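Retry 2 of 3 after timeout on previous attempt. Resubmitting structure tokens to design endpoint.
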């Protein structure tokens, strides 16, 4: 779910529009190349999504009761710039971040969510939150880049980070406007096309166009939730679209839009101009999490069942963040991520990282299911990233939100 739903999208989508991930072997990835950090999840180029995929991988492992190797957590924390922000990847952290360092809100917010869940890095998360607050827009929103035009995905990711760090998002304001004020302005009314959905950003004339990925992000943001949520309690299957005079109603409206979009085939689609529609596995997984968080568990369970039958190859091709997205979807609906349509998502994700000495991919013996806690010069990179983000509304790229997991 998010603008950077997979930061790797920004690399691959230039060619394939992020609808179809690059082909890869379906077996667990081999050990990372010696040119890459040994503590990094995945063996693909981390230039655009290193922090994003690491954050999602660590958060997903934590969500299912797996303790990540200490080196992987330390690597993530060590990627932080002195001002508190995170860039997608810093090959040499001994070199200070400068004007050309591509720090962004999505990588930063994802890192906060992961490190806050894991604990023990309060100094890192506090600095990151301070930086996020410093780049909040006047309308209460956040854009992908510091000072960039606000969008639903980035704003929602930051809301999740603020909540994870113990902040009250409604009280984080700029010129008297909170992130919830910004989200409400991006919510479509209950009449006309896309009723109840969220737009990614307003159009040139201020018009709002429904965007499924932005809607999944917006539902979570309006609920004050992050990338990982606990199983929903249900009871919100037939909520009617109403005037979005508050974040709760906006979340209900967005969930109703998603349920309707998923009703026929149980999955969302993504298409390039002139190409046939293709299943959008990543956005479907994000929508499942959003629906479950809202309590629309019926449609969420139908869509996660579709993912169980169809998403294994996509995840194997797309990398750690894809497995993380599926783990989030399974967890949110009460499905078993260790037996997900015949795939052990937890094992596959773990195989993409360094071996964890003394740890296990199984929950701790005394931990039951109910007890678990819940990717500056303004050059080609930013131009491509912003255009892609605006064009396809990716992210929870990212979401990553290819969907090698998105930045």
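Retry 2 succeeded. Sequence:
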């Amino acid at each position: 779910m998010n603008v950077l739903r997979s930061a790797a999208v920004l690399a691959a989508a230039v060619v394939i529009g992020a609808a179809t991930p690059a082909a890869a072997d379906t077996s667990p990835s081999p050990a990372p190349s010696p040119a890459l950090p040994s503590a990094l999840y995945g063996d693909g180029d981390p230039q655009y999504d290193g922090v994003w995929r690491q954050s999602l991988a660590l958060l997903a492992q934590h969500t299912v009761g797996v303790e990540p190797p200490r080196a992987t957590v330390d690597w993530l924390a060590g990627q932080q710039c002195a001002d508190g922000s995170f860039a997608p990847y810093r090959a040499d952290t001994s070199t200070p971040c400068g004007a050309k360092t591509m720090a962004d809100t999505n990588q930063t917010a994802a890192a906060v969510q992961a490190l806050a869940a894991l604990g023990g890095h309060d100094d890192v998360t506090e600095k990151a939150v301070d930086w996020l607050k410093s780049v909040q827009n006047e309308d209460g929103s956040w854009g992908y880049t510091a000072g960039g035009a606000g969008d639903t995905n980035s704003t929602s990711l930051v809301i999740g980070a603020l909540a994870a760090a113990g902040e009250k998002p409604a009280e984080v304001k700029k010129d008297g406007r909170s992130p919830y004020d910004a989200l409400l302005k991006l919510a479509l009314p209950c009449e006309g096309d896309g009723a109840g959905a969220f737009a990614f950003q307003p159009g040139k004339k201020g018009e709002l166009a429904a965007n499924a990925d932005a809607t999944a992000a917006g539902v979570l943001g309006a609920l004050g939730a992050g990338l990982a949520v606990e199983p929903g309690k249900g009871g919100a299957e037939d909520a009617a679209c109403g005037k979005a005079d508050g974040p709760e109603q906006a979340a209900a409206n967005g969930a109703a839009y998603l349920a309707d979009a998923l009703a026929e085939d149980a999955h969302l689609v993504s298409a390039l101009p002139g190409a046939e529609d293709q299943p959008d596995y990543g956005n479907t997984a994000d929508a499942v999490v959003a629906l479950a968080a809202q309590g629309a568990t019926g449609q969420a369970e139908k869509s996660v069942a579709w993912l169980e039958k169809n998403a294994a190859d996509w995840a194997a091709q797309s990398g750690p963040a894809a497995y993380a997205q599926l783990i989030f979807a399974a967890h949110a609906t009460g499905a078993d991520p260790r037996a997900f349509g015949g795939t052990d998502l937890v094992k596959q994700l773990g195989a993409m990282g360094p071996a964890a000495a003394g740890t296990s991919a199984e929950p701790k013996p005394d931990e039951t299911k109910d007890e678990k806690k819940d990717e500056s010069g303004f050059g080609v990179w930013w131009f491509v990233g912003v255009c892609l983000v605006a064009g396809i509304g990716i992210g929870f790229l990212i979401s990553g939100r290819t969907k090698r997991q998105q930045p």
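Attempt log closed. The CA atoms of residues 129 and 162 lie 7 Å apart.
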